[in-house]
Amino acid sequence: MKRIFYIQKNDRLVLIGVLIFLVVATVVTYIANPSSDSYGGAKENTKAELFYFDPNTADSAQFARLGIRPRQIHNIYKYRAKGGRFRRPRDFSRIYGLSEKKYKELEPYIRIERRY
Questions:
Q1: Which tens digits make up the pLDDT trace of 73-113?
Q2: For residue 97, which of 112, 78, 81 has the smallest C-alpha distance?
Q3: For labeling, which of 56, 75, 99, 102 is most exposed (least CB within 10 Å)?
């Protein structure tokens, strides 16, 4: 039974070296880019410029200025491309990936034209 799990000395050294390399690479990657594990790759606390906007007609530059992350902007465009319309401000809160905190921040600035 002991011989089944036996690893020669050279093989053990290589295995230990590979494990150390993986741990160091993981730590360095995390230190270099700590926001990589958040959804969309950007932090929620980015400085946002608040202004009145219509989510049915706003473009990606306006959404970005509002502090909405790229993945959320993509979801808004997908929703509108499939015929989705925001009829009241609360509808905007249903965008996938948009946090309740971010929605509450933007809610007073949402102005939807009557035609929607």
A1: 999 999 999 999 999 999 999 999 999 999 999 999 999 98
A2: 78
A3: 99
